[in-house]
């Protein structure tokens, strides 16, 4: 499950928030659907090489936002997409494809995730599209 999740320790965004954002995005675009189980706190922490409390906080934030639910026997389960306005509708496949293309181009050019996000924030600000704060 960690294939889409990574932690950038040089990023000023706390690791728990990086995890929350990435999982929230995976849920928003339908990679993780309602009913899917998230990895256990311990296994994800071990895979990412971080403290279990960091993953637990990310999971708690997801639960507070209504996208996941902790169940005694089933672990943490996706219950729905992030609340609007952050949800990407299924009809926005072209936008998702463009974002995926941007990510691939950045990786090919050796641009790190934090730098790519900063570039995108800057371009949003230059083009006057509201706030430059990016949230999944």
Automatic annotation (TrEMBL):
UniProt-listed InterPro entries: Tscrpt_reg_HTH_GntR, WH-like_DNA-bd_sf, WH_DNA-bd_sf
Alphabetized GO MF terms: DNA binding
Family annotation (Pfam families): GntR
Keywords, sorted A to Z: DNA-binding, Transcription, Transcription regulation
Coiled coil: none
SMART domains per UniProt: HTH_GNTR
Domain HTH gntR-type, chain residue ranges per copy: 13-81
UniProt-recorded name of the protein: DNA-binding transcriptional regulator YhcF (GntR family)
Protein species of origin: Paenarthrobacter nicotinovorans (Arthrobacter nicotinovorans)
